Amino acid sequence: MQQCPRRSVLGGIGATMAAALAGTSVAATDERADTTSTTTDTTFDDLLAYLPSKVAQDSMVLTATNYDRLLEADQPRDPFPNVGTLDLEAEAISKSVLVTSYTEEFTHPLKVLAGIELEIDTESRETDSGLEYEFADLDDDDAVAGTDGDVVIIAADAETIDAAIDANAGEKDRLLEDESTLEAGLSAFDGSDMRMVRVSDEQLMTPGETDAVPTYFTHAQTVIDADTMEQSIGFEFEDESDITDELIESLEAEFAYNATADEPTVDVDGTFISTTIERDLAAERAVREHDSPGFLRVDREIDLDDDFLEIELGRGDPTPIEDLTFEVGGEEYDRDIWADGHGKLEEGDTIVMDMDDVEPNLSVRLRHDHELGSSSSGTTVLSNFGFSGDFDVDTGEFTVRYADDFPLDGDRLHLAAYDERPYYRPTKDAPEPKASAQPWTGETLSKGTTATLEGVDPGDRVLVGWDGIENSDSIRSLQAQPPGSVSFEYDYESETAEATIEFGDRRRYAAANTAVAEETAADTDDETDTDNTERSADEYELLVDGDRATTQWTDEYDTVTSGTTIDIDGVDVGTEIEVVWAGTDARIGWTRARPSVELEYDDGTVEHVGGEALPASELTADVWTDGDRFEIELADEIDGEFVEGETFAVDADAVSEDEAADEDDREFGTVREVSLRYDTHRIGFALPDR
Question: Where is the composition biased (Acidic residues) (predicted)?
């Protein structure tokens, strides 16, 4: 179920909180009771004492978390701190204090962790005050770690750990003693199990529209019981006048998408404004476990003579109709129509819309509103129509032909050519069309209707748009394909590739839908390219691994026709060979050089029945069964070359030792496919019963 709560201050600080907590979450399990504590100690003084003044930053977040307490709440995901590559048992950490810096870049200057030991090789180190502790340089983490036996400290450098050890002993200034704003924010919700305070030299996000910049933002969580958690947020301002009625109203709405027993209220204490709620975790779990109706499916064959269009739901638990909204074209649709008499909707049910309201490229969406926000599922009706295209490379004219039966209003149709793929969701940096037109104004398109767009270059993408020329308006995408195609043959033994130009009907390459293209070609006698086409050889450029090849058609020919061939020597397996229209990246043909082997499978035996003779040492067979996937190194089965007539067995004994660490646990099952690889390249396969 995809949840889409509205924008809020909590949503805005979500990334900040995640970074500050530096936590990884794992799904909650039934084993929670075995790992949690019943401690009620919510103080963090023992950890905060390790924070030296030197970690203070203009923009920073300080977070204190009691994991033992938070784990007593039955949340969808259990919080654990991120310990990086350090070999620590995150689940054993009872409490942590984390400092996160945003001044120049996102960093963690200091982490103080309780409840664990540093189980790596350490050496003794002494602080400036003469205090000894155990120290380790974490090369993989670009960090260092230390422990005094009570806590584990992770920092960016050894000097910070020295300062932390000294601060705890009272030999160095402490962060909270020097930074009263941090201390105030951390104690704003005293007794909470998780406290976070952010200060910044840049404007902090606040709810609603206000120019006032808060001194700090604070957030807290407190576990009441397994099904209830108290959650608080607060802002401190410079002046009482900064707390406006609009700010109060906005803050009241911040928890609108939490399951709560009571409406949130806002408290104002001088320059501090806050709100606290009790989350109903049981209700939240029920919402998360509920599969909202969705996966809308519309029959591809729409009969316009029907009274209604039926839309089937492909998933969903039973959900009351009154909790659902059906949107057509972004507007709420009449529930008396679309609900079609249903009291609830679930997987397999059908909703409807009036056929008179159906039009091309129409967005429809079913939305489920619930206590955590909303979930929605949508699709587009009539988003793909049959068009084909013919490109005249000499004139730059691209002719579009309609090949469908649905009558289209030409006043709403556009053509646009792009020299790069347009963005699905346009931005100010999105590419502009190089050519556009509305050639069918005043017409109703029927099968066979054509129009021409000028100013098109080889390789351009031509969109047929409905009510616009953006990618999201497209009901067909076509390619301005230069004349010709190129086929390749590769000889492994001689390391030679052969490239052959062919000319013929190009519509099947220009249209995005091959079936439509072939139908179009069959319905017309107008052939732009024929087998007699002759083009200048310098129009075709051969590339090898992205660079211009030393071999070109111009080396041997002035012009090319169907069947004109060149050989490329010294081609290793894996080499990429491409033919483009000269001076552009418009591709005419492409291949990756690799040998080819024909295989046959018969009752556990795979036979080489045609193709290249290849060194068995270079070959690996991938075996897919209905229970697993295995690898067979052919060098373990065959000496020398794998040649025509050679066989190998596919069974448990043939699986390589590297892949079968514990063959007693392997499920071999029925073989579904055997695929042969040369290095990373698939060069042949066999399917049983075929």
Answer: 520-531
